[in-house]
Amino acid sequence: MTLLLRGPCRLLAPHKHATCHPRAGAVCTSPPSSRFIALPQRRNASSSSTDNNAQQQPPSPSPAPRRTRPKTALFFPGQGVQKVGMLAPWLEAFPTTAAPIVEEIDHIVGYRLSDVIANGPSKDLNLTPNAQPAIMATSILILRILEKEFGFKVDERVDFTLGHSLGEFAALVSSGYIEFEDSLHMVQKRAEAMADATRKAEEEYGGEYGMVAIVSEPPHMQQLIAAIEEFVGYGSEGGKSESAENRSPIEQVLIANVNSKNQIVLSGNIERIKTLVAHVRQFLGHDPRAVRLKSDSPFHSPIMKPAVGVMHRILNGRSRRVKGREGEDIVSWPGLVPCVSNVTARVFGSREEVKDLLARQCLETVQWWGSIKYLDQEEKVRRWVGIGPGKVGRNLVGKEVGMRGKDAVKGGGVWAITDPSEIEEVLRGLEETENLVDEEAQ
């Protein structure tokens, strides 16, 4: 069966300033899942040939309220997706919109970050103080282009936002809790504090620090996590024992990310991580694959504790960079759209919780798998749109919810906008599924 959407594809028509995607007005078709039904379009009486007769009839009852569209989540990537030249396609396709944002980015960080993004070399862009603000700023630039050039409104089109580690800052901007200027400044200071904490650990204790992904079979994951927490002496929920707190950084390891049903990331001293992996292989009865990540710091490990204090001080201060908000609380409450916390895998519940959890997120485990499961299973989110460089986030989401690209699985899909050429496909996919209703979610 084929669903034909009646009426114009609202999201596909770019604003008058758009410079690309000429096929945006095409009629859309899509095969819906059997669990979804197409909603009939309300009849427009003014276009009927029986208008004169209709005027002599008593007014019809008000139509039943339209059933809601599938729930939609907007998500943003974390560190590791940076790439030299990642701004260039956006500046070429949308120069009028993108150029002023790039200038603003450079002004906020206080140096020509755009030159580092444009020209590299990669070793400079990959440095944490450059990579984190570059990724966050690029993500928001893409979102601003969607808003201005295509009329995409987060508060009308999206039900939840979330971001992987660093991406949480972009998620909070997109959902109206923190202004871009304040958020980018926080990301810059967070990155500097993280890099400084790593440097001090290396100077004081020696050793090599970083992150290692552990890939296992899904049935073994919970047992693997429990074994690692027993080995290191504290859990991934932030509940550390007193003995663990007293250990030197060279001895400390933490589960930095629980990314999916078959992947976690360990962070800390590399030799200690190797010992831990050997212990797991010997005593757990299976052989998980270990992959060293390209990271110059052990994010979300106890070594990052100084960064938590830096973030608390900034978040408990006032906005100083946003015109018209000088002196106001840096966190707005409520926001426009619920945002899911990395620490709790649930939506932020108060202004105070945003401040506390966003600061603690530097140290504690990123509960990405839990966040996706919560939105998929409890909130019945059926459409997922990643915004920002790289497709790592889309792949992680797809592992959990069983969707890839524009597949009409469960009435939705998992998409990513990383390049201007992908905008049309994503907006088309949203429009094709706009009138589908998940009967399980009713």
Explain this structure to me?
- Helix 3 (95-109) packs antiparallel against helix 6 and helix 6 (128-150) packs parallel to helix 8 (167-174).
- The strands form four sheets. The protein has a four-stranded parallel sheet, with helices on both faces. The chain has a four-stranded antiparallel sheet with strand order 7-8-6-9. It has a two-stranded antiparallel sheet with strand order 1-2.
- It has helices at 51-55, 88-93, 95-109, 113-119, 122-125, 128-150, 154-157, 167-174, 180-205, 221-232, 242-245, 270-283, 305-315, 351-360, 368-378, 392-401, 423-432, and strands at 3-4, 29-30, 36-38, 71-76, 160-163, 209-215, 253-260, 263-269, 289-292, 381-387, 413-417, 436-438.
- It has a domain at 205-303: 2-Layer Sandwich (Alpha-Beta Plaits), CATH 3.30.70.250.
- By secondary structure, the chain is an alpha/beta fold.
- The protein has 17 helices and twelve strands.
- It is globular and about 55 Å long.
- Residues 1-67, 238-244 and 404-409 have low confidence and may be disordered.
- It starts with a strand and ends with a strand.
Strand and helix map with partners:
Elements: E1 3-4, E2 29-30, E3 36-38, H1 51-55, E4 71-76, H2 88-93, H3 95-109, H4 113-119, H5 122-125, H6 128-150, H7 154-157, E5 160-163, H8 167-174, H9 180-205, E6 209-215, H10 221-232, H11 242-245, E7 253-260, E8 263-269, H12 270-283, E9 289-292, H13 305-315, H14 351-360, H15 368-378, E10 381-387, H16 392-401, E11 413-417, H17 423-432, E12 436-438
Parallel strand pairs: 4-5, 4-10, 10-11
Antiparallel strand pairs: 1-2, 3-12, 6-8, 6-9, 7-8
